[in-house]
Design brief:
17 helices, 570 residues, ATP binding, alpha/beta, 12 strands, 43% helix, elongated, Serine Threonine Protein Phosphatase 5, Tetratricopeptide repeat, 13% strand, lyase, DhaK_ATP
Length: 570
């Protein structure tokens, strides 16, 4: 049985509603019933009250749509089960006694919901209440229609919104019923899922193989109409829209080029928001290619099926009046607070800022010749490329195993840069140019850290090239890395090797220091420091989140830095 974060299986529907009401000052529970009402019931005096509801497990539906400008109240059943007749009747009585000018029940087309809401409606009418019921069936899954008709799924939320805006504007029960029924006729929804869902305490409702997706499933974990191999998002969306509008599909939605629609991209509960954004973009593109105008697009979790990793697309054909009703203000917490306007993939981009002219300091004649620079850089590049697999292997213990790839990317980029133009010989310009290359091409936090180091080091070398200037540059680079990266020596990072080498370079400040001996000592210190990270506990970077007992290897960043210094100072 899949894990669930509930307090008790039997109390999960009540607990979820209680949590929603606790956090939302606009909602109240109806005593003794699983019914949520607006907290300002007196405000509906003389207006039409709107009630909806159904099983729990579809959150934020239905209680998330209670508020001014949407529903007056909702009646909830247990997970995936219709609410009781008694609770529906209690909700009707509560709004009638608050002075409502009629009650409209908005019900999804399921037998249980129709029966329980219908029975309550008959009893309320017998008590003299003016109650009507609209049954929503927006599912486009079934190509031949059985007796049960189309299921009511996510499109119902648009009906809540349209009815709510009309009621808020003071429309009569007749008018609301008529307009809502007309809107429901020009609307279609289709679901697609990568996984089933499971009711708390139960096994999943159906099984899907690793490489399968299910088309046309409902919101109660029922299997769909077609099982197929997993498709990329854009192809999956095309398949969905094709099925929804297929002329041979009895439950199709007729879409003609030039039509205006409201699009709802609904997360069925367990899809990541990243995937949802990809699907939304694909849906807009696909509709645009068909010549459809997307007057509004809503993207989010509107009517879910517990943790089902899937998505549903809803399309409603709209005119100006319907769009105005969709745009009308509401306090319902689950309705998105969006800027009104059409959806399009052809939005104009903000032009990229123009980079100011660079101060080119002409410092030719200082520092090593171009040929020597090329030789050293080539040594660095081949060293890093040769170490790629070793660094990846070291990184697997604590990181994401890509340290070698990242350094190899930098090496390739430096090689390409050298082939495209001779590197500047002046040290400050050389390091600045290298900083640009690694920042653009290397990626990862190491790219930024090297970029910081080289940029700060370059500043110390303006107009200087003596060995002391290089020792100062090393210190300046390390200081910048520490300031922004947050690591200190001993934290098991690339800084350990750099710091050790910098300490060794400090002896260049003593009179009569032997340059070659100091450089050799710097490389040896860096290599020893890299090896010493094997026994350190990570204090910064991604590895710091991993228990130190698992890190028996030296830090890959420190090893890479030691190798680079070795290649430079060889």
């Amino acid at each position: 049985v899949p894990k669930k974060l509930v307090t008790t299986v039997s109390g999960c529907a009540d607990d979820a509603l209680a949590g929603l009401v606790a956090c939302n000052p606009g909602l109240r529970m109806l005593q003794g019933h699983r019914v949520v009402l607006r907290n300002d019931l007196p405000a509906i005096h003389g207006r039409v009250a709107l009630l909806s509801g159904g099983g729990s497990g579809h959150e934020p539906a239905h209680a998330g749509y209670v508020g001014k400008g949407m529903l007056t109240g909702v009646v909830a059943g247990t997970v995936f089960a219709s609410p009781s007749v008694g609770s529906v009747l209690a909700a009707i009585r509560a709004v009638t006694q608050a002075g409502a000018a009629g009650v409209l029940l908005i019900v999804k087309n399921y037998t249980g919901d129709r029966l329980n809401f219908g029975m309550a409606l008959e009893r309320a009418r017998a008590e003299g209440a003016d109650v009507r019921m609209v049954v929503v069936g927006d599912d486009c899954a079934f190509t031949t229609l059985g007796k049960a008709g189309r299921r009511g799924i996510c499109g119902t939320v648009l009906i809540h919104k349209i009815a709510g805006a009309l009621a808020e504007a003071g429309a009569s029960l007749d008018e609301i019923e008529k307009k809502v029924m007309a809107a429901a006729k020009v609307m279609g929804t289709l679901g697609l899922s990568l996984s089933p869902c499971s009711i708390p305490g139960s096994k999943p409702s159906f099984q899907l193989a690793e490489d399968e997706m299910e088309l046309g499933l409902g919101i109660h974990g029922e299997a769909g109409v077609r099982r197929m191999k997993v498709l990329p998002a854009d192809k999956a969306v095309e398949t969905m829209l094709k099925h929804m509008t297929d002329p041979s599909n009895a439950s199709r939605l007729s879409l003609t080029p030039g039509s205006s629609v409201v699009l709802v991209v609904n997360n069925l509960g367990g899809l990541s928001c990243l995937e949802l954004g990809i699907v939304a973009g694909a849906a807009v593109r696909c509709l645009e290619n068909r010549g459809i105008c997307i007057a509004r697009a809503l993207v989010g979790s509107f009517m879910t099926a517990l943790e089902m990793a899937g998505v549903s697309l809803t399309l409603m054909l709209v005119d100006e009046e319907l769009v105005k009703l969709i745009d009308a203000k509401t306090t319902a917490m689950a309705w998105p607070n969006l800027l009104a306007g059409p959806a399009t993939t052809r939005r104009e981009e903000v032009p990229a800022p123009v980079e100011g002219p660079r101060k080119t300091q002409d410092e030719t004649g200082i520092g090593p010749g171009t040929a020597r620079v090329q030789r050293v850089l080539e040594r660095v590049c081949s060293t890093l490329l040769d170490m790629q697999d070793k660094l990846n292997e070291l990184d697997r213990g604590a990181g994401d195993g890509d340290c070698g790839h990242t350094h190899a990317r930098a090496a390739q980029a430096i090689r390409e840069w050298m082939n495209s133009q001779p590197p500047p010989a002046a040290p400050a310009q050389l390091l600045s140019a290298l900083a640009d290359v690694v920042l653009e091409q290397m990626g990862g936090s190491s790219g930024v850290l090297y970029g910081l180091f080289l940029t700060a080091a370059a500043r110390s070398l303006h107009g200087r090239s003596d060995s002391l200037a290089w020792a100062d540059a090393m210190d300046a680079g390390i200081e910048a890395m520490q300031r922004y990266g947050g690591a200190a020596p001993g934290d098991r990072t690339m800084l350990d090797s750099l710091f050790a080498a910098a300490q060794a370079l400090h002896s260049l400040r003593s009179p009569g220091a032997n340059l070659l001996q100091v450089l050799e000592a710097a490389v040896q210190s860096a290599e020893a420091a890299a090896e010493a990270t094997r026994h350190m506990e990570a204090g910064a970077g991604r590895a710091s989140y991993i228990r130190s007992s698992r890190l028996e290897q030296p830090d890959p960043g420190a090893v890479a830095v030691a190798a680079v210094l070795g290649a430079v100072l060889e």
